[in-house]
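Q: My labmate handed me this sequence with no annotations at all. I'd like to see what the chain might look like in three dimensions before we decide whether it's worth expressing. Could you predict it?
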Amino acid sequence: EQFIVEQLIKGPGEKGYLATLSPNLKLLSVVTANNICYVDFGDNFATEQSKVPNDLVIYSIVNSLLELNDIHKVQISISGDSALKYHDDISLSEPFIRNLDIVENNE
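A: Here is what I predict for the chain of 107 residues:
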């Protein structure tokens, strides 16, 4: 789980692709319990700007982690607090489930 989030922070290695997460993000912890992956970012998760829409930031994390069989939901927090909104837009108060509506289909 931690490796997946670290790779998202690292960003794509190829030209023509945008990173969904800022490389400046601080990842405090990633823990999975009872099929919920708890991802805790530092305070800068609330302030760092991405070049992609807010929902794409959140669901790049959620959808990537839900590819693992033992994870069914993802709870995101900022410095241990999930009673916040990401960029005053997306509530972090409840765990997230997969959202395939934002995934591009290249078939």
